[in-house]
Amino acid sequence: MTRRPPVDLNAIADETMERYGFEPRFPNAVLREVSAIDEAGVLARQEQVSDLRELLWSSIDNEDSQDLDQIECCKRGPDGEIRVKVAIADVDLFVPKGSKTDRHAAHNGTSVYTGVETYPMLPDALSAGISSLLPGHDRRAVVIEFTVMPDGSTRYGEIYRALVRNKAKLVYEEIGAWLEEAGPMPDPVREIPGLEEQIRLQEEATVRLRDFRMARGALDLETIEARAVVEEGLVLDLAIQEKNIARSIIEEFMVAANGTMADRLEKEDTPLIQRIVREPKYWDRIVDTAAELGWTLPPEPDSKALAAFLNRRRDADPDSFPDLSLTIVKLMGPGEYVALGPHGIPLGHFALAVTDYTHSTAPNRRYVDVINQRLIKAVLDGEPSPYSLEDLSRRCTWLTDRDKAAQKVERFMRKAAAAVLLRDRTGEVFDAFVTGVTPHGTYVRLISPPAEGRVMQGEHGLAVGQKIRVRLIKTDPYKGFVDFERVGRKRR
What is the pLDDT of residues 311-367, one digit of tens each? Predict the structure, then answer.
């Protein structure tokens, strides 16, 4: 048997980044600018800053994440209230508007996570260093406060600068397993006084927030996105990121914090950037999808009705629910950034069932969040907005494009990694779900490994969610192709 040459996934990732308009490497000018930052001098600037270092701050993130954007803490208030503080890394402090680093970040717009290689928006010296809220370091932050009421509604609070210190870097999987009684108490929770009570209070606030949004039509979607497990250039597996209560804590807190930021900027009559998902453009096709599964949706977009349908389908067929979710996501259309002028009417986020929403909680990873950080700081300082409405509109168009491009890069690299993982398994038969039926082709996801590919033969008559058996007929990592032929219907 002829030994095939190894596939250089890093080279494929670089080429894919460039193909979609990203600069995968930092220019030397940016690296020199960052290396010249006087951290002590920057932190010594005379600004009104609240000292909150003694609070029991913690972060929850992926195990390997070093670009920590936010930390959280909360406490009980009167009458069943839970008061939450979310501290956001003050990235603007180290990345002045118009600097070389700022211009490069504005061009790429976002960090890109391919599973093979991470392309940070900011150099590691910043995003994984002095602008990251890593444990054990005094850091400057913008703190967003909100109160979770007993019924799960949110009362927006203050926003201000602060000095903070992360006490514990926690991991999604470990915290989630512990809270769901499927794993032991993580060491930091056991060893740091008061942290167990703190995390359980965060969980209580999260349940309230989530139940409140779900009752108002928030969509509880669950798409499967497998990330490559790569060691020394070899693809060992495709891993699925499982949802758990720890991820929900961060999701719910960020939705509330972003809503607080949007509300404050709107009240100040300053231009801002909204993150929106419009009413679905292809609602009629969502109605048809529901009808095929025996459910009737109203003729006009209705998030509550759609949420009820999705909840019923999750209970009825949890195995195929991620594929139904993916279909709904595609038919709803992508999220967008849209500028909102003074006295403008917010467009809202259909999927989250919220009206006031923006992106402001991940400035190490998204450039929109850096912009919003500058906007709120101008408000706090009583200064004019650093951006005109026209400038924000132009940036929204570009950053929406960068957001979509990043998703395309990540999707292509998932396919390339799957092609590498399966390249020696041509001819094998796999169980699969149909994930897409379009004029351009029919697509499936294998049960194990969770690789996606196209059905090239025997695709006629297939429907989304159908369970079938397929044979692998071809892979091409450089084109991101994984091709199958249908060999028979899988019995339920």
Answer: 999 888 887 787 788 788 878 888 999 999 988 888 888 888 888 899 999 999 999
> CB under 8 Å to 277, separation ≥6 — which residues?
332, 333, 334, 335, 336, 349, 350, 351, 352
Distance from C-alpha of 431 to C-alpha of 433, rounded to nearest angstrom: 7
- Residues β-bridged to residue 425: none
The pTM of this model reads: 0.91
449 prior amide bond cis, ω within 30? yes
**Residue located via tokens 């909360």:** 74
d(CA 228, CA 117): 10
The string of DSSP letters for 272-302 reads EEEEEBPSPTTHHHHHHHHHHTT----SS--
Q: How far apart are CA 165 and CA 43, in angstroms?
A: 14
- Distance between CA atoms of 405 and 87, rounded to whole angstroms? 29
Give the fold, CATH level 3, of 423-489: OB fold (Dihydrolipoamide Acetyltransferase, E2P) (2.40.50)
Residues of the chain with CATH 2.40.50.140: 423-489
Given a contact cutoff of 8 angstroms between Cβ atoms, the answer to whether 447 and 420 are in contact is no
- Tell me which residue has tokens 């060893």: 191
CB 124 within 8 A of CB 64: no
